[in-house]
Design goal:
seven-stranded antiparallel β-sheet; mainly beta; globular; about 270 residues
């Protein structure tokens, strides 16, 4: 089992890559993830090969071009904690893309096996499903960037804002069995930003038999691998926590199983 925390580089590679997860480095099969930081005027060009890609503009503005389409000056938020949905671009396998930064850009490159079944497209903020999930101190804001009801071959992409003092990915749930319709097998990455940046988040990753049982202190700009098990998150008082989730597996459907010890929390208290 690799270390579940993936730390960013102190100095980015020449292309701007600051953090990279591949199926090989994670010890799994489906999910790839990368963070690239570009200065204004810098560009990144890649071919997709056998992977489909979801480019998420975490912050900044850019021009994006693929083989068949292009979009100019996309991007709106300058910081993820503005809490408005991002601009994203879906790029199929056997394609290519170029991202040209108009301002400083933080770009998430989400990848998973593709079959070339869908054309490249822009995912505008108005096309992102926004919802509030949970109640009380398990309430959080969800942005469904690439949910299962939107076309893609493998990828599921969502971002979550957890207010300070709150929990998310909670009650603890898992999706590590290919046992549909009850549960789907999905590998998952969490990419964290914390406000203020010197803070931290806490994430636990554990299985029923406790063969995996880790409690992680996660800092701003780090990522967490969730190969299996339950994976709740806590934002300490004083520190708002953002994370971007990427999931993929043999079936593109999110069916999770709650930890039976904590499933009772799904019953919202009756408000008097």
């Amino acid at each position: 089992m690799p270390n579940l925390i993936v730390k960013p580089l102190e100095h980015p590679h020449v292309e701007g890559s600051i953090l990279k997860i591949t199926p090989e480095s994670a010890g799994w099969k489906y999910v790839g993830f990368e963070i690239v930081r570009l200065a204004a005027g810098q560009s990144l060009s890649r071919v997709t090969g056998e992977q489909e890609i979801c480019l998420v503009l975490l912050s900044g503005k850019a021009d994006v071009q693929t083989k068949e389409a292009s979009w100019s000056d996309i991007g709106e938020r300058m910081n993820v904690f503005e809490k408005i949905p991002p601009f994203s671009v879906y790029v199929p396998s056997d394609d290519q893309y170029e991202v040209a930064a108009k301002t400083a850009v933080e770009l998430a490159i989400c990848s998973a096996p593709g079959a070339g079944g869908y054309p490249a497209r822009l995912i505008e903020p108005s096309h992102v499903g926004v919802e509030t999930r949970g109640y009380g101190n398990i309430e959080r804001q969800i942005h469904n960037i690439l949910p299962e009801n939107e076309p893609a071959d493998s990828l599921l992409v969502v971002e979550v804002f957890t207010p300070n003092g709150h929990w998310s990915s909670y009650p603890p749930h898992k999706h590590d069995r290919d046992a549909l319709p009850q549960e789907s097998f999905l590998e998952e990455t969490y990419y964290y930003r914390v406000d203020p940046g010197h803070g931290f988040a806490i994430q636990r990753v554990y299985t029923d038999d406790r063969s995996l049982d880790e409690t992680l202190l996660v800092k701003d700009g780090e990522a967490v691998l969730v190969p299996r098990g339950y994976h709740p998150v806590c934002a300490p008082p004083g520190y708002d926590v953002y994370y971007l989730n990427v999931m993929a597996g043999p079936s593109r459907i999110w069916k999770f199983h709650n930890d039976p010890e904590h499933a009772w929390l799904m019953a919202k208290p009756v408000e008097e």
